[in-house]
Q: What sequence folds into this?
């Protein structure tokens, strides 16, 4: 029987307590002082959050193990404070069968650093035409509940409607990459506006996202199903989601850390590190996204961690791969942009980075309050630490880190998965 | 040469090397210097023996990832008439998935010992990116729909030869603004030279956000060519790409010509209002679509003068980037 004593941690901002963990479960909360033989984790001055849950990662395995593996992505996740991540389906081969989903699950368990929950493709091969074996993926050992063609939009309204209807039978959810391919095609790579005009880069207008979000919330209303909007990037999408929630439509939404901070003007130097999909937007959108995360319109922060081999980023801007790293920096970015500014308190961070994403994904062992009987999945944060991001220090196999050189307030000190310390101070435990 | 090097040429980035990536890198004095030197080079071009020894022993590589016979030939002649060793390399299309990255390709070429890389690429920003990877001077010979700096310089040179100073002169640029790198470089060049610029196009061929851009940079926008022509000193017609014509950006070629072509009737209206007005086109032309034969071939047309000036302007650019740099560095 393994025992862990965490002393003096501020439980999501509600006051300092000791936590006793036995066999992976929280068994006592309060003033414990000492427990004979227990491993002790001193957490005075640290905030304890329920373990972070990421609704949106790309772990690249199978297919691009040179850019990331499930093991390396799990390590980056653990160091970033995560105890569970959802692995998107756009691998090679695509996660569109039960066997493929179970393989991802098993590789995650073998790595053993975070719970890796596979996301299933909505359509076969992400082609947007025929439904993938949604039910078989759900019935598999992987118990897939979240389905997404992420990287591509389920743009055919009839296919989206059928997917929403079909997964209702097992309370699944479709996570939509909202991008109308006719309004923002595959070359679209810069927020459409004055800067895209000046730079001569193909524009990716906000309406290409907003029209799909608007359509999908109406489809969700019509079918009585649940839809989740991945990486919301515009103020217009926020308005639609806010309206839909007010109507009682079953919609949830996520925002990435980078869309909470980084703006389109970073593209002026044509550095593909800042090429991401959806693209970085103007400050007005950033402000609207922060406000929506604070008021609950947006439910969750999700990283869209998207590692790429160096040679896939060293092309001309329009030819370079989309995406940026996010797992190791997410908590610091949210702390710096939302907590330091007073937009969220630590209980709010627990909500948007743990309990809400766990609920959306149906992960029962995660996102639980730090009370007796809960699985001991938790993240300790130093709210006052200043970190300067160094891309070379990453545990990811890739280096496409848009935060390199930035100073952020708030850092993950330790991550605990079912009572086992998985990471401490930026390194695996 | 009467020009002094210390007033010349462009922005510096990596290791103090000078590049010509954007007309925005050039201030008024630098543009003036390039155009004045171009005039001297143009004089040399009229001689029987055109070659100057200036860049003997220097190597210029034309690295063209996109076909362009006229720009490549123009740079090639410019280099050769300055006695540089010039080689042309056609990059295969961009390989986005597997194999060589743009950086690999460019570093491979640069490793052969190159003094200047003249780069043409279908992707906006390519020359800018390349300049951060190599030690050679980089000249942007057209990057996607972003810029084509030497085209704007030769346009200014050609117009000045006919019109005199462009200060206060009204230049109308007409056509596919969204997909034109020529217009972006010309906006920067003409503004620096003090010209008044009006861009004319149907709304679907104007880049997104051009309203705030125009307000910030002080140029005008119009959807009505007939209203703009009477006050124009120069009319620059842009090529309309065939692939824009199948109903995506405007309904038919016929309708485009009626709305935005420099037709014989419009040529007559222009000449009636301003007999000294000139007509430019960066080429290649779609005769009968954006420009009528009468407009392209008449005395008011500068189209062949532009081609001739192209070599002189590119000689000037190569000279200012390369000549005498051993003494400088």
A:
């Amino acid at each position: 029987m393994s025992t862990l004593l965490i002393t003096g941690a501020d439980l999501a901002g509600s006051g300092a307590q000791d936590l006793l963990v036995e066999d992976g479960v929280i068994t006592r909360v309060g003033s414990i002082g000492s427990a004979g033989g227990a491993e002790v984790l001193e957490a005075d001055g640290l905030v304890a959050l329920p373990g972070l849950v990421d609704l949106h990662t790309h772990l690249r395995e199978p297919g691009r193990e040179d850019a990331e593996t499930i093991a390396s992505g799990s390590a980056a996740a653990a160091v970033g404070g995560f105890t569970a991540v959802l692995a998107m389906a756009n691998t090679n081969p695509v996660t569109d069968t039960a066997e493929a989903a179970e393989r991802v699950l098993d590789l995650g368990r073998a790595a053993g650093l975070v719970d890796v929950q596979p996301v299933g493709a909505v359509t076969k091969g992400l082609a947007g035409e025929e439904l993938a074996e949604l039910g078989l993926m759900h019935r598999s050992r992987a118990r897939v509940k979240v389905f997404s063609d992420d990287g591509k939009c389920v743009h055919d309204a009839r296919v989206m409607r059928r997917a929403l209807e079909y997964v209702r039978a097992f309370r699944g959810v479709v996570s939509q990459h909202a991008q109308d391919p006719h309004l923002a095609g595959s070359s679209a790579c810069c927020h459409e506006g004055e800067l895209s005009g000046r730079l001569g880069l193909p524009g990716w207008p906000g309406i290409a996202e907003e029209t799909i979000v608007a359509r999908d919330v109406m489809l969700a209303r019509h079918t009585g199903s649940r839809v989740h909007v991945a990486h919301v990037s515009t103020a217009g999408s926020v308005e639609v989601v806010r309206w839909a929630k007010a109507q009682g439509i079953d919609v949830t939404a996520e925002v990435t850390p980078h869309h909470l901070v980084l703006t389109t003007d970073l593209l002026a130097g044509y550095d593909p590190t800042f090429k991401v999909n959806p693209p970085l937007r103007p400050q007005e959108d950033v402000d609207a996204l922060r406000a929506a995360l604070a008021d609950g319109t947006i439910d969750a922060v999700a990283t869209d961690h998207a590692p790429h081999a160096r040679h896939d980023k060293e092309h001309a801007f329009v030819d370079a791969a989309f995406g940026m790293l996010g797992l190791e920096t997410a908590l610091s970015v949210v702390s710096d942009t939302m907590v330091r500014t007073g937009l969220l308190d630590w209980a709010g961070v627990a909500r948007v980075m743990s309990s809400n994403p766990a609920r959306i994904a149906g992960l029962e062992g995660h996102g639980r309050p730090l009370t007796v009987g809960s699985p001991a999945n938790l993240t300790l944060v130093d709210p006052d630490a200043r970190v300067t991001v160094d891309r070379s220090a990453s545990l990811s196999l890739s280096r496409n880190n848009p935060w390199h050189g930035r100073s952020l307030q708030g850092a993950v000190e330790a991550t605990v998965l079912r009572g086992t310390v998985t990471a401490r101070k930026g390194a695996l435990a | 040469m009467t020009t002094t090097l210390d007033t010349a040429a462009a922005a510096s980035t990596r290791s103090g090397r000078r590049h010509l990536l954007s007309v925005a890198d050039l201030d008024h004095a630098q543009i003036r210097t390039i155009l004045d030197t171009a005039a001297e080079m143009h004089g040399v071009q009229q001689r029987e023996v055109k070659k100057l020894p200036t860049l003997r022993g220097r190597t210029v590589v034309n690295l063209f990832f996109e076909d362009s016979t006229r720009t490549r030939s123009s740079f090639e002649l410019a280099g050769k008439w300055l006695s540089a060793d010039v080689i042309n390399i056609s990059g295969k299309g961009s390989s986005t998935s597997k194999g060589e990255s743009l950086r690999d390709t460019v570093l491979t070429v640069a490793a052969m010992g190159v003094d200047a890389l003249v780069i043409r690429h279908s992707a906006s920003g390519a020359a800018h990116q390349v300049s951060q990877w190599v030690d050679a001077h980089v000249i942007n010979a057209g990057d996607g729909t972003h810029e084509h700096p030497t085209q704007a310089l030769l346009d200014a040179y050609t117009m000045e030869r006919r019109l005199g100073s462009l200060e206060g002169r009204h230049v109308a640029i007409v056509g596919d603004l969204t997909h034109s790198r020529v217009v972006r470089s010309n906006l920067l060049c003409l503004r620096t030279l003090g010209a008044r610029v009006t861009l004319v196009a149907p709304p679907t061929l104007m880049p997104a956000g051009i309203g705030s851009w125009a307000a910030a940079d002080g140029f005008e926008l119009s959807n009505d060519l007939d209203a703009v022509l009477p006050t124009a000193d120069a009319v620059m017609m842009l090529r309309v790409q065939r692939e824009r014509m199948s109903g995506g950006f405007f309904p038919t070629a016929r309708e485009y010509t009626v709305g935005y072509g420099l037709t014989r009737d419009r040529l007559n209206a222009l000449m009636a209002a301003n007999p000294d007005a000139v007509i430019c086109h960066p080429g290649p032309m779609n005769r009968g679509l954006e420009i009528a034969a009468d407009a392209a071939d008449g005395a008011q047309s500068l189209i062949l003068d532009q081609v001739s000036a192209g070599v002189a302007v590119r000689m000037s650019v190569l000279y200012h980037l390369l000549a005498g740099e051993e003494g400088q560095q």
Remarks:
- Chain A has a mean pLDDT of 97.
- Chain A has eleven helices and 19 strands.
- Chain A touches chain B at residues 192-201, 203, 205, 269-270, 311-312, 314-320 (CB under 8 Å).
- Chain A has two domains: 3-47+374-428, 50-361.
